Amino acid sequence: MSLFPVPRNxxxxxxxxxxxxxxxxxxxxxxxAGLSGAGGSAGRDTAPAWPKGGLGEIAGDDGVPxxxxxxxxxxxxxxxxxxTRGARRPVPIASLTKVMTAYVVLTDHPLRPGEExxxxxxxxEAAYEAGVGDESTAVVTAGDRHTERDLLELLLLPSAxxxxxxxxxxxxxxxxxxxxxxxxxxxxLGMHDTTYTGASGIEATTTSTAADQLKLAxxxxxxxxxxxxxxxxxATVPGVGLVSNSNTLLGTSGVVGLKTGSSTPAxxxxxxxxxxxxxxxxxLLLGAVLHQRADTTPGEGLTAALEAAHALIDGLRGRLLPVxxxx
Length: 327
Hints:
Layout: E1 24-25, E2 71-76, E3 79-85, E4 91-92, H1 97-108, E5 119-121, H2 124-129, E6 145-147, H3 148-156, H4 161-172, H5 175-188, E7 207-208, H6 210-220, H7 224-230, E8 234-237, E9 241-244, E10 255-263, E11 267-278, E12 281-292, H8 298-320, E13 323-324
Antiparallel strand pairs: 1-13, 2-3, 2-12, 4-7, 5-6, 8-9, 10-11, 11-12
């Protein structure tokens, strides 16, 4: 059973479940020597065994395809500590910023699943910014009114910078006031190596670490509406049309979110969440991959981040998933 319901306008990927008649055991050869917490033998009934220390048990495994550059953080919900790789220093995060923007908006203006929320008028600034400059934007018309849910979809799927700033002004009166809320939220989450200077992430001065972004991911994925949106491959927004999610990993390897981000100074970034099913249990594997191919093009960086994250997710899932064997 999935942790999350199937969202609207989303085609859900199907995980391959290995079947057989014998009990679940962990494939011990994939784990380092000395793994404890799993008992029994092939052909006997055993409970699905997870690494005792979460991902910490496999952190030293040379077979894990950690990204060769930038920085990475991963965690398996409900087990053990966060595992990090790479230099733990703040770097530009580009549109990963929008996860915090959505989190603050939904904290101030909560929505229940299925609710559209209040209608928000598009101001002239947001309309003018559509298509102006080298930014990701959504084409909106001044005076049109869109629901909070619609604007959150434009924020998180095609990653519209003008919508991020529009939501900031709607919520706090100005982007500057909203950024102060973002920073307070970061401090409350223990994101002490994170600095927000805008709602969209276009500013290279908005910086964070993979470990800090993982703290935000854990909290963000507890919000049913935000979780539903980031798991959607596409959405139809009235007055705008069909928009697609820039996270092309959705539906592969159990991926159910979260957010891409790319720019020349930031390189490619991906904050991701993937479901792992074992028997009747489902856990969430969360990760952040930052600063891939920085100082190249945003497209090259994003491609590198998606590829690095995909390889890492598959590598970790292969070491965490129990398998059925013939006894």
